[in-house]
Amino acid sequence: MSVSRPAAVIVLAAGEGTRMKSRLPKVLHEICGRSMLGHVLAAADELDPQRTVVVVGHARERVVQHLKDTAPAVSTAVQEEQNGTGHAVRMAVEELAAQGVTLSGTVVLAYGDTPMLRGRTLSDLVEAHESDGNAVTVLSAEVPDPAGYGRVVRDASGAFTCIVEHADATPEQRAVGEINSGMYAFDGAHLASVVGRLSTDNAKGEEYITDAVAILRGDGHRVGASVAREWTEIQGVNDRVQLAEARRMLNDRLLTGHMRAGVTVVDPASTWVDAEVEIGPDTVVEPQTQLLGRTSVAEGAVVGPGCRLQATRVGADAVVRHVVADDAEIGPGTSVGPYAYLRPGTVVEPAAKIGTFVEVKNSTVGEGAKVPHLTYVGDADIGAGVNIGASSVFVNYNGVSKNRTTIGDHARTGSDNTFVAPVHVGEGAYTGAGTVVREDVPPGALAVSAGKQRNIEGWVRRKRPGSAAAEAAEQAAGEGAEAAERRDEQ
Ligand code: UD1
Ligand code: CA
């Protein structure tokens, strides 16, 4: 059965989350590259609702800013004081009324601290709700440890009658393993009528949205509880232990999806991926690897061990080992690392090589070019087929401004070169070892800047007498004389 487009999704995010012991509002804590609230909104988005309202309260400037940055289409309703989930929903309903929205059709309610939630679970809930013609349908779950949750109470015939909060429950009710997930599908008109009738007659003295069940049932309407297929999905996060558990579970779910799609994950236990990461088939992700943000890895690539890639695009068949990269483009067939650091704006063109202990920033390394060892490349454009000698530095900063260096195609620069930007090395040019390149090098020229080498004979014997160096030098001198004698005799 197809489900309707919900009239609205309401997400509660006004609570402080005291148990997190954090300056950051609870719902903004991140797992797998998204805030907890962001995960709930992503699941809700799959329902394609006509509007989404987030109820904000505690530290609301931060939550509102976060929503502006990540989910600009949602609107917010303010709950000045956190007087309970029912009060929070009332604020959302009043905000919608103020916008001129008369609720009819299905309204979905979820809490902002359930990051494992999946869109499919919400659409299953809406489907059950609409096919049963309920005034409200609660998503329930059988959990191993129901402590802390509201319990789903059924009468002798098994009919769902009400939700009782843990603090208000009798011992018999506490023994019930079926709990309220905190996700609901409401008939919009019934929701609008019920939020004004919630009492504060309970252990916390708050308006509970859970009381809507008993009230609507008392009005003679149908109410239902639909059991979630996977209880792990509805787990709420209240402290940092649960945050870590949720992160682990979500990561496992994401990795399972990638493995089923043809990715070899050598060690799932030490591999972390964010929700938005894309990985092509026949790729290998080696241990101790983190793929973060909008990172993508194309078919046949090998990433890891020991990589941390943030918003980085890895091309097909690239091999990337022990690399930290942020906002970099690693082309197909390239080899990067071990121990390379690619900073924002790095483009490694196809078949290029970035070797060991190399840092690259805001630079392009051309097709087939090599920067193999111990080098800093900052603000440079390196042409195709270039070889950069070991231990070179692109001096991009003069203390005031940053400047660029360009190296023409197929140039070969010597070891231990310094490129003092702005400077250009022409196509096919060479530079000698130890060159300080301060002036442009014409195409095909050889640039050398070091002076002619001068040897001061006997300096060690005179200035460092008795040292191990002096002894070694004397011995070598003696052996040299003997060898010369032997040659003379022959
Ligand atoms: C709630 C449910 C409980 C359910 C559990 C599922 C109620 C009364 N209880 O309990 O039945 O089993 O979730 O996880 O609904 N919030 C506001 N304003 C408020 C209070 C809360 O916006 O005044 C928000 C919080 O930010 C949070 C969500 O509502 O995202 C849930 O609040 P929380 O205090 O965590 O409720 P639980 O005690 O977990
Ligand atoms: Ca909770």
Could you characterize what this model shows?
With 490 residues, this protein is of the alpha/beta class. The chain has two domains: 227 residues, Spore Coat Polysaccharide Biosynthesis Protein SpsA, Chain A (Alpha-Beta Complex); 186 residues, Hexapeptide repeat proteins (UDP N-Acetylglucosamine Acyltransferase, domain 1), CATH 2.160.10.10. Helix content is 23%, strand content 28%. Strand 2 and strand 3 form a beta hairpin. The mean pLDDT is 96. The chain binds uridine-diphosphate-N-acetylglucosamine and calcium ion. The site of uridine-diphosphate-N-acetylglucosamine has 29 residues, from strand 1, helix 3 and strand 10.
Quote the CATH topology of the largest domain. Spore Coat Polysaccharide Biosynthesis Protein SpsA, Chain A
Question: Helical element count?
Answer: 10
Strand percentage? 25-35%
Q: Looking at the chains present, what oligomeric state does this protein adopt?
A: single chain
Full CATH superfamily name of the largest domain: Spore Coat Polysaccharide Biosynthesis Protein SpsA, Chain A
Helix/sheet category: alpha/beta
Say how many strands there are: 39
Main beta sheet strand tally, sense and closure:
12 strands, parallel
Subunit structure: Homotrimer.
Protein name: Bifunctional protein GlmU
Pfam family, one: NTP_transf_3
GO molecular function: glucosamine-1-phosphate N-acetyltransferase activity; magnesium ion binding; UDP-N-acetylglucosamine diphosphorylase activity
Quick synopsis:
The chain is α/β, with parallel strands linked by helices.
Please tag this protein with its features.
elongated; binds calcium ion; UDP N-Acetylglucosamine Acyltransferase, domain 1; 9-stranded parallel sheet; Spore Coat Polysaccharide Biosynthesis Protein SpsA, Chain A; binds uridine-diphosphate-N-acetylglucosamine; alpha/beta; 39 strands; 12-stranded parallel sheet; 490 residues; magnesium ion binding
